[in-house]
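Priority: medium. Attachment 1 of 2:
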């Protein structure tokens, strides 16, 4: 039997309210024992983790991996290595690949390739509509049978409410959560950054907070009508947080997430026409940042994802109007959360870990995100005292666009186990 003992670390397992010093025993890829002092079996490999933090492997449910089709930006291999370097053991890939993942074969390709790679776990999502065009529904049932865990047209919102309503009924029938990118395109128009004082100063066309709010409202109304499980991606506005809280109180099955860029940064980051800060939703003003943090604190926002969106350097070295949208984020998300939410006094470490493990696992319905006996041994070990500076040149991702470049963070994974296999040592020794 293959045994590994994680000895004397601070074990954080929010699914069971655990935050205590103790040992974890892994046997044949499964958590055999958790907590207290465990005497190691013969031949066990022992990791002495005094002063370190042991958490369930992190789960990121919004990641753009680009393969198939845009392997120049990212591949499943570089993306999944990047995830592991952030302490993330499971990712949900977004369907805006080339071609769009709207039928069985791209789903099967991704699952097969991820198995061969044997890095982090990959759970693909499928498109809501064919080609993400917002016109005809995708092959949800076939994709579900091939292994998707959610449907989303992320990158765009389904603009036609009649089609969105049908999609929600269809997703509900197939037991799939529908994940919405909320945006009213008539309102966001040709905007490139948050509409406010900074966009006025830079003379750049703005995207109002209300363009997102309208999308949020329509999705909530339709989820209430259809009874579909709804997850709202990358929320960034004050009204979005308030509307979601209101509909959660009414019993609507809606969960919500945000990403580090929306709680770490404000639209001031766009100053100097910094195209690395161009993303959708746009990074917003202080007022919205505060509301997002409040939503994280009061539980309205239960998930932190990254919206990891790798691009070529050349695609950002354009004018602000022409640059592509998005930033890489897999290797900085835990550190950003720890530095800007935990160290800043907004969340406890356990609350942060909850939003990056058990809560996203529940959204997509996978048996991960806990350290309970019998669970698959997906485990991350963090050293919270490591102070480091984000440099995209040192990251595993192929993406060259990082909005966090040069920022100082605390906390880094030092060991990452997937089904009991240490993955990080191998990647970092290359
Ligand atoms: Zn999106």
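Attachment 2 of 2:
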């Amino acid at each position: 039997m293959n045994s590994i003992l994680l000895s004397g670390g601070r074990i954080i397992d929010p699914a069971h309210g655990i935050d205590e010093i103790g040992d974890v025993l892994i046997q044949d890829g499964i958590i055999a024992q958790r907590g207290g002092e465990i005497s190691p079996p013969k031949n066990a490999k022992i990791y002495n983790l005094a002063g370190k933090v042991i958490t369930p492997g992190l789960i990121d449910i919004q990641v753009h991996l680009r393969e198939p089709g845009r392997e120049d930006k990212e591949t499943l291999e570089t993306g999944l290595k990047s995830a592991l370097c952030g302490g993330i053991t499971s990712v949900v890939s977004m369907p805006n690949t080339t071609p769009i993942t709207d039928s069985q074969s791209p789903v099967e390709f991704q699952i097969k390739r991820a198995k061969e790679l044997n890095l982090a776990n990959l759970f693909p999502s499928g498109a809501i509509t064919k080609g993400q065009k917002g016109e005809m529904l995708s092959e949800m049932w076939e994709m579900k049978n091939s292994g998707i865990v959610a449907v989303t047209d992320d990158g765009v919102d389904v603009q036609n409410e009649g089609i969105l309503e049908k999609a929600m009924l269809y997703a509900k029938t197939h037991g799939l959560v529908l994940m919405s990118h909320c945006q009213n395109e008539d309102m966001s128009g040709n905007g490139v950054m948050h509409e406010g004082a900074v966009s006025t100063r830079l003379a750049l066309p703005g995207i109002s907070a209300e363009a997102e709010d309208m999308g949020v409202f329509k999705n909530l109304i339709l989820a209430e009508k259809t009874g579909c499980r709804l997850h709202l991606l990358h929320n960034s506005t004050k009204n979005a947080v308030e509307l979601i809280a209101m509909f959660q109180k009414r019993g609507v099955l809606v969960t919500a997430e945000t990403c580090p860029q929306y709680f770490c940064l404000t639209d001031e980051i766009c100053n100097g026409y910094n195209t690395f800060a161009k993303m959708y939703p746009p990074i917003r003003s202080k007022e919205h940042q505060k509301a997002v943090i409040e939503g994280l604190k009061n539980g309205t926002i239960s998930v932190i994802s990254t919206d990891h969106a790798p691009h070529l350097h050349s695609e950002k070295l354009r004018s602000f109007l022409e640059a592509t949208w998005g930033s890489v984020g897999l290797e900085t998300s835990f550190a950003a959360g720890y530095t800007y939410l935990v160290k800043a006094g907004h969340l406890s470490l356990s609350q942060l870990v909850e939003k990056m493990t058990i809560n996203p696992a529940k959204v997509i319905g996978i048996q991960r995100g806990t350290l309970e006996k019998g669970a698959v041994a997906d485990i991350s070990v963090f050293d919270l005292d490591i102070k480091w500076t984000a440099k995209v040149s040192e990251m595993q991702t192929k993406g060259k666009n990082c909005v966090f470049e040069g920022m100082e963070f605390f906390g880094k994974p030092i060991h990452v186990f997937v089904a009991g296999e240490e993955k990080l040592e191998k990647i970092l020794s290359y």
